[in-house]
Amino acid sequence: MTSIKTLIMGSLISIIVASGCAVSQSYNEEDLGLRKVDLYSEKTVVGEPTSYSTVSAGESKTIQRSFENAPPLIPHDVEGMLDMTKENNACTGCHMPEVAEAVKATPIPKSHFFDMRTQKVLTEMSSARYNCSACHVPQSANEPLVQNNFKPDYRKESEKSRSNLIDNLNEGVK
Ligand code: HEC
Ligand code: HEC
């Protein structure tokens, strides 16, 4: 069994070793940020260009959901679709449940035809859902600067590609 004395000695040694390391290591200004240029000037900063899918709707492949009931990412080109006005919403043109099947698009789910405040089913899509791109965004093909180790857990295999929020909306709430 490890005695308390040994434990205290051990921790003391690690503190000494750790502080020794901190002193011997130094960093340049250019090393501190993720962008690897002088942090005090924007002059040489070049943003990585975004590169969105250029595959047309109907020919793209859907992207696995980031987690259970995450809003799906838009896998297709949205060029010309995102000047959303009161009169014109291209997204509903293909994604409304009554047309979606014909164009092989994922239909807008029941949760979007539901008033979250009154908890009532609506006959029309909730106006809170009108601006699709507030929640659904295209994915840019870029290498992440920081590796993300998050691994989603889906309770059902189908949740990797379909949502069911309306069925478990108040789960755990009494
Ligand atoms: C011309 C018809 C059309 C239009 C317009 C359209 N989509 Fe799509 N969308 C599709 C189809 C078809 C798919 C399935 C993937 C494919 O076949 O390209 C899809 C897939 C998606 C998906 C992924 C669904 C999933 O199950 O993962 C999202 C999110 C989406 N679209 C959102 C939008 C948004 C937001 C707009 C408006 C900016 C929009 N779409 C406009 C046809 C369309
Ligand atoms: C306030 C955020 C928000 C807005 C606005 C919104 N959505 Fe969603 N959407 C979600 C979330 C979250 C999900 C996944 C959970 C669920 O089913 O509601 C989802 C799911 C979807 C799905 C996948 C359905 C399935 O069965 O897997 C489609 C398709 C979709 N939305 C299309 C749209 C379109 C088209 C619009 C615009 C008319 C829109 N959404 C507006 C948040 C939003």
From TrEMBL:
Binding-site list for heme c 1: 76, 91, 94-95
Keywords: Electron transport, Heme, Iron, Metal-binding, Periplasm, Signal, Transport
PTM per Swiss-Prot/TrEMBL: Binds 2 heme C groups per subunit.
Domain of life: Bacteria
Residues the record lists as binding heme c 2: 112, 132, 135-136
Transmembrane segments: none
Gene Ontology CC annotation, any one: periplasmic space
One BP annotation, GO: anaerobic respiration
Single Gene Ontology MF annotation: metal ion binding
Annotated region (Disordered), positions in chain: 154-174
Localization annotation: Periplasm
InterPro entries, alphabetized: Multihaem_cyt_sf (IPR036280), NapB (IPR005591)
Pfam family, one: NapB
Family: Belongs to the NapB family.
Protein's name in the database: Periplasmic nitrate reductase, electron transfer subunit
Native source species: Sulfurospirillum diekertiae
Source taxonomy: Bacteria, Pseudomonadati, Campylobacterota, Epsilonproteobacteria, Campylobacterales
